[in-house]
Amino acid sequence: MPKFMLIMRGTDEAKAAFENVDFTEVLAVMGKYNESMLKAGVMVGGEGLSPEAGLVVDFDQNPPVVTDGPYGETKELFNGFWVLDVPTIEEAAEWAKRAPLTPGNKLEIRRIQGPEDFPADNEWVKKEQEWIEHGYRDPDA
Amino acid sequence: MPDASARRAVEAVWRIESARIVATLTRYTHDFALAEDLAQDALAEALAAWPAHGVPANPGAWLVAVAKRRAIDGWRRAAARDEKYARLAHEHGIDETDAGTETPWDPDAIDDDVLRLVFIACHPVLSREASVALTLRTVGGLTTDEIARAFLVPVATVQQRIVRAKKTLAAAAVPFEVPPREEYPARLSAVLSVLYLIFNEGYAAASGAEWMRADLAREALRLARVLAELVPREPEVHGLAALMEFLVARFPARLDADGNPILLADQDRARWDRTLIARGRAALARADALGRGRGSYGLQAAIAECHDVAASVDETDWARIVVLYEALGRIAPSPVVELNRAVALSMAEGPATALRLVDELVAAGSLGGYGPLPGVRGELLARLGRAEEARAEFARAIAQTANDRERAVLEGKLRAL
Lengths: 141, 417
Known about the structure:
The complex is a heterodimer.
Chain A: E1 3-10, H1 12-19, H2 23-39, E2 43-48, E3 55-58, E4 65-68, E5 77-85, H3 89-97, E6 105-112, H4 123-134
Chain B: H1 3-29, H2 32-53, H3 59-79, H4 83-93, H5 107-121, H6 128-139, H7 144-151, H8 155-171, H9 184-203, H10 210-230, H11 235-248, H12 274-289, H13 296-308, H14 318-331, H15 335-349, H16 351-363, H17 373-383, H18 387-400, H19 404-416
């Protein structure tokens, strides 16, 4: 089954509105949403990103320049993600529509690539899977 | 929205909502067969309306409201003939709901109702085939077309199975309830075996329609995950979910470019799905944490886990697999388990020990006329360098098999001797 990532982005206004809401309430509402997807057997992962400022590494110049984040002009922050295990992107969208989010927020849905998207015999593809599985091993050690 | 995409959107809603809708309607009408019909009618109405007008804000509420309206209409029509329906129409007439934004079911009670639905769909008065079709349609939210495609049977056959199943349930006056304590273990075990049957139907398939059948195995996995949340205190449910996670994890490596199955030993393990393996391990840990030991699904999951966490055939903990098969053989004895134990033993201790075990099992009559026996014996003899005897066993295996691919593998082994 393909996996899809729901990528959550929000504007500064959405973030400000969010700060006025009781955090316990937010946890309860979000918790119920996550629980509904767990109970349906479709949610296989997800994380939230901390609202504090991060860093941006920009490759427009060589060497790359490190600045305070966020990047881009939209000010739409990437706030977190869910990973869903569902057969179609429409089903992922149907789950996304149920997220307890307010105006100013968006969920982008993207399919996560699996081994079937890469040439099976590529040396680096194989190595990468090995690392995920066993951790990096120095071939010369 | 183009038509195909709109249709997929309706189907997506249906997959998410069907179990709760049918459960809600069964509680409402006290009649599972009627509830299922009403739900299907509501789905048909959605397929007609949504592509033109868009998906409503609360699609579950919309579907339930449409189904209830149809139920009341039906009762009103029947009221002319029968007092009982007049009463039903009167009782329900006042709470006719709009397709508003309110959730059409009580969130705290709906899980219990969905569980009741699972127990109805897998009720022992039904044939296995009927339970499979009914479970996939009502609990899984698959359409009749999808079920027919998955099982390579005509749509009419699936429809017939469902109609008959509903008649059987009505004839047996099967109640909408979680089975009482004394029946519970047997009834739960029946549910698990229906899910496992669905899984195997998809897993064992290696035909032209492979993609659809892999979807079927994945649907069984999803249903097992759902059941694990409905009855979280049952270790075997987690065991079954774990087993399916471990086996589905291997799907990306199971077929070659021509669609031929690749044996476990030859699979590219780098392609196995790490997320699912981690989920399998977590599910098995949940089963173990209940402290009631492992049942047959838990043990099979533990065996699958040994393979899934090993970097190669040589690095597999075969000694542990042998012990797990021994335990499995005691609680669920079968020729398949015994022969698998012998194969594991050949990996752990060499072909001579394994051959002794196989011959003991044959002498004890434990293997019956089990098909793969000559093939396994031939393999062990070949590894022991007893080529003449190995040839005879492979020839016997070739004569016995009805499966073309298996025959090709055996002929390859015969030629290699």
